Amino acid sequence: MTSENKNMEHEMPKPNPDLKTLSPLIGTWKVSGETHGEITYEWMEGGFFIIQKIELESHGQIIKGIEIIGHEQDFQSEPSKEIKSRYFDNSGNTFSYVYERKGDQLTIWFGEKGSPAYCSAKFSEDGNTLSGAWIYPGGGGYTYTASKIDK
Fold first, then answer.
1. Which domain range does residue 7 map to?
2. Which domain of life does the protein's organism represent (predicted)?
């Protein structure tokens, strides 16, 4: 093994810096509107992923779930260009999303980027409120407001 290979072997990977664009989400949020409850975002140790925990009520149904947000990376391959996530809930649902933040705008696409099902939300100037709507094909969806209650 050459000394160059040895150095590469011991080099620790670093999180993709674009994941930091989602830092304003970190904390606990009180969600109000047609869907209401609490959502908490926290960094997973190492900084490669954000863990989202949800407890919401929507149309009389209690939804408890987790979502892992970050870059997908298969063994010995490069990380995905997009910030992706996988969501799991108490009804057995498993969904995939793509996250993108530009300025005060947060977009979350259901499945793949550009999907007709997506969330469009905007952070307030102080970053303590996130107002948005989930848009579904055929005219469905809902609006919400989330207020940060714990940073």
1. 3-150
2. Bacteria
